[in-house]
Automatic annotation (TrEMBL):
Ranges of residues in domain HTH lacI-type: 14-68
The protein's name: LacI family transcriptional regulator
Keywords: DNA-binding, Transcription, Transcription regulation
Alphabetized InterPro entries for the sequence: HTH_LacI (IPR000843), LacI/GalR-like_sensor (IPR046335), Lambda_DNA-bd_dom_sf (IPR010982), Peripla_BP_I (IPR028082)
Biased composition (Gly residues): 1-11
Organism: Streptomyces alboflavus
Region of interest (Disordered), ranges: 1-21
SMART domains per UniProt: HTH_LACI
Length: 351
């Protein structure tokens, strides 16, 4: 006979996760049942109580106190105006991935915009009150104070796209450098020699890396990098139009354009058509994102596919792991993950 002390896997005390697995529910649901929350159906409560009894689970007092402070919610913070969020497929694809990852949990999702100083101050107050268990930061600029605030508050956070090579927060990104290189290599293979680029906002690290990839591909192929062939955009269609107008004024002999997003490529295409340039006969065009815009353009747009939905899923998985990590803050900081997902060039008629 044993000592009567309940044991889980390997003889250890049964855990909250084991109770959740036995009951077929999420960890948050078990916490709510143990803490007497009314936000649980009777059927679910009975299943959890049965699992607790079968495993002999005894709640740890400290863990119960911690569970009582949990909100069972995470925030997706977009430091952009709402207009940009709804105009660009990138954001909806990220949210789709986040929703997929949360579908099997009891976490609630809060979407908030912080495109201006007033919104940032309001969000800072909200986060300082620890009203969410963790934060997903999407489309963060290099000078954004929000990531530093989250570190100061010790709120688990994951960022989509690093702010720099030395990003201290956990991050999930696509391989912007390799994607841009593949785009320019493709244009070179198609015989194009005067290849321009429209960058995104260069205070976004991913936009910098796409510009780096463009330059690297040209240099390796033995072509000088001509700064007159680089125009700065801002990831918007209007920005693509302005940049394309600049490029044609500076280098009317250009025969290809690599745009740092499909949305900017759509703006560039409009100017090229207005100027009587045929795509791809006169000017080949390549975008980045492989969004629905790319597939529906005329002609369909060659684009670098980044796995945006997978990025949203992966960010959420990493954040949930951070939320569940009960180690001291210093140990958690050392273990933060920097994940880079592969990109793929999708060839279509525009190039």
């Amino acid at each position: 006979m044993g000592s009567g002390q309940p044991r889980g896997r390997g003889g250890a005390r049964p855990t909250l996760e084991e109770v959740a697995a036995r009951a077929g529910v999420g960890r948050g649901t078990v916490s709510r049942v143990i803490n007497g929350s009314p936000r649980v159906s009777e059927q679910t409560r009975a299943a959890v109580e049965e699992a607790v009894a079968e495993l002999g689970y005894v709640p740890n007092t400290a863990a119960r106190a911690l569970a009582a402070n949990r909100t069972d919610s995470i925030a997706v913070v977009v430091p952009e105006p709402e207009s940009r969020f709804f105009a660009e497929p990138y954001f909806s694809d990220i949210i789709h991935g986040v929703g997929t990852a949360l579908a099997e949990t009891d976490m609630q999702l809060l979407l908030t915009f912080a495109g201006g100083d007033r919104e940032r101050r309001s969000l800072a107050q909200y986060l300082s009150a620890h009203r969410v268990d963790g934060v997903l930061l999407v489309s963060v600029h290099a000078d954004d104070p929000l990531p530093d605030l989250l570190q100061q508050l010790d709120i688990p956070a994951v960022i989509s796209g690093r702010r720099s090579a030395d990003e201290p927060l956990a991050s999930v990104d696509s391989d912007n450098f390799a994607g841009a290189r593949a785009a320019v290599d493709h244009l070179l293979d198609r015989g194009r020699r005067t290849i321009a680029t429209i960058t995104g906002r260069l205070d976004v690290y991913g936009a910098q890396r796409r510009l780096d990839g463009y330059r690297d591909a040209l240099t390796e192929a033995g072509h000088p990098v001509d700064e007159a062939l680089t125009a700065r955009g801002d990831f918007t269609e209007d920005g693509g139009r302005r940049a394309m107008t600049e490029l044609l004024a500076r280098r009317p002999d250009l025969d290809a354009v690599f745009a740092g997003s499909d949305v900017m490529a759509a703006g560039a295409r409009q100017i090229l058509r207005e100027e009587g340039r045929r795509i791809p006969d006169d000017v080949a065009l390549v975008g980045f994102d492989d969004s629905a815009i790319a597939r529906h353009m005329d002609p369909p747009l060659t684009s670098v596919r980044q796995p945006i939905t997978e990025m949203g899923r992966t960010m959420t998985d990493v954040l949930l792991a951070e939320i569940a990590d009960t180690r001291p803050a210093a140990a958690r900081r050392l273990a933060r993950r920097q994940i880079v997902l592969p990109t793929e060039l999708v060839r279509r008629a525009s190039s």
